[in-house]
Amino acid sequence: MIAAFNVPHPEVELMLVNGTPVDFGYRVQDGDSIDVYPIDDSIPQSRRKTPPLRPDMPQPPGFILDSNLGRLARYSRLPGFGCLYRNDYCDYEIAQLADRQHRMVLTRDRAYCDTIITHGYFVRSDQPISQIQEVLH
């Protein structure tokens, strides 16, 4: 259901259905009340103890960028981010490397972001300077 509203799954921290935490496998029923919280501080204090949808992101974060973000890869190295980028990585390779090396995937492909990525971010801007500002935020 949240994919229908273009919400990338890796950016979701908590989903509540009728006040109960659920995972991405939950099937929506008629009359359900659904609350979806992003990865930030907006989660109600009473829900902070609920099991996470995915393991915590290792700190400091490292990144792997898909082929749509070559210029962002160059800009991301300037502030010292650990970034992997090759324009010939296939989606499966990116997901495997991200999992094995505990990296967050940065992508402009929303459909890919919702499938096999554990930690990821859908970069909304198509301008490299704005993209680096998104990542820094």
Can you tag this structure with a few keywords?
137 residues, 3-stranded antiparallel β-sheet, 7 strands
What does this entry look like structurally?
With 137 residues, the protein is of the alpha/beta class. Helix content is 23%, strand content 21%. It contains 4 helices and 7 strands; from the N terminus they run ββββαβαβαβα. The chain has a 4-stranded parallel β-sheet, sandwiched between helices. A 3-stranded antiparallel β-sheet has the order 2-1-3, with no helix packed on it. Helix 1 crosses helix 4. The model has no long low-confidence stretch (mean pLDDT 82).
Brief write-up:
The chain is an alpha/beta fold.
Total beta strands? 7
- Widest sheet, order of strands: 5-4-6-7
Residue share in β-strands = 15-25%
Helix fraction, binned, reads 10-25%
Q: Using the CA coordinates, give the radius of gyration.
A: 16 Å
Structural class: alpha/beta
User: How many angstroms separate the termini?
Assistant: 27 Å
| Helix count, DSSP H or I runs of 4 or more residues | 4
Specify the biggest β-sheet.
Answer: 4 strands, parallel
What spatial form do the alpha-carbon principal axes imply? Answer: elongated
Mean pLDDT: 82
- Model regions low in confidence, pLDDT < 50 over at least 5 residues: none
| Helix/strand order | EEEEHEHEHEH
Overall structural domain count:
2
